[in-house]
Write a structure and sequence with these properties.
The protein is α/β, with parallel strands linked by helices. The chain is built from 10 helices and 12 strands. The protein has 2 domains: 182 residues, 3-Layer(aba) Sandwich (Rossmann fold), CATH 3.40.50.720; 103 residues, UDP-galactose 4-epimerase, domain 1. The model has no long low-confidence stretch (mean pLDDT 96). The structure holds NADP nicotinamide-adenine-dinucleotide phosphate. NADP nicotinamide-adenine-dinucleotide phosphate binds next to helix 1 and strand 7. The site of NADP nicotinamide-adenine-dinucleotide phosphate (NAP) has 29 residues, from helix 1 and strand 7.
Amino acid sequence: MMAPAMRVLVVGGTEFISLALVRALIREGHAVTVLNRGRRNDRLPPGIDVLVCDRKDHAQLRSALDGARFDGIYDITYAPTTGEDVAALADALLPSVPHVLFVSTGRVYDHALPIPYSEATPRGYYWGEYARHKIAGEDALLERHHTRGLPVTIVRPTHVLGPLNTRHNEAFFFDRIIRGRPVLVPGDGGWLRQFGHVDDLADALASMLGDSRAFGQAYNLTGEECVTQVGFVELIAEVLERRVEFRHFDPALLKRFDKPGLVFGQNLVYDCHAVYTTAKARAELGIRPRYTLASALRQTWDWYRKESLDQRPVDFTFEDELLALLPR
Ligand SMILES: NC(=O)c1ccc[n+]([C@@H]2O[C@H](COP(=O)([O-])OP(=O)(O)OC[C@H]3O[C@@H](n4cnc5c(N)ncnc54)[C@H](OP(=O)(O)O)[C@@H]3O)[C@@H](O)[C@H]2O)c1
């Protein structure tokens, strides 16, 4: 049964996760308003109200939201968004108390601890400023939940893939494998990674709206499989029905370059495992992804070809320079 239509504010709405979320909310019949700086509103489906505003300008934010009433707010945009920015958004709508859903990250967990990371894993600043801002955002909302009863839900995704991905990850490997280029692998490429499809995340976020079981709670949301860095690329090659040649290199070689380019996706190189359990979301809310890692990659590959991205020019100069340093 469909939930009754609600008035929903999405901060962002025009790039990757937030655009998929807008589409999921529309499918559910909700009335959606987006708030962003107005760079790509041509991407929005019809029927969306738009507030043009920089969320980091709190006076502008208060004035844009003055008198507005929403049943739910998705605080999703990382601008980079501090705890003060998150608090300013939640407070701008007082005295009404809509359900605030905050898209945080799995990177709030201390990744020096053993895997898998659950919602009970201690948070920490392993991931520097990004983790610090996200933890501050979570805490600003949880404090308002505990002291003032604000309905709040924290969602912690990890690597997200799918059409329009702003992180240059799966398409990075499509670009190389389809052209018969080797894939450069930092070290052994054995660190574990976990990916979720953007539409599974968007559907899960939409389903949580107004769900009182999720008030005051945090949930990991991602796919149910983990894979090594090399295993991820092997699976991509299988989906593309192509062979892939791996060329391993010592990451210390990158120090020889003033401005090293990307060598293994945008943010997949780091030296630790990143594995998360989604048991809490499954057990408490019945949320399960519909994509496996292979089917998520296949869907994204279909989109990539439909958009003719296999024809786009790609600059391999940096990789060629790095390859020239490696023994054959
Ligand atoms: N992608 C991943 O793998 C991943 C993993 C874990 C967590 N996350 C989290 O997921 C969230 C969404 O990330 P995303 O990359 O998919 O981006 P997104 O939210 O889909 O796109 C950014 C949106 O925010 C708007 N925006 C940016 N700066 C703004 C500002 N100062 N004021 C108002 N609006 C602003 C942009 O529009 P304008 O430019 O027009 O303002 C755009 O609509 C982030 O919080 C990120 O930390 C992502």
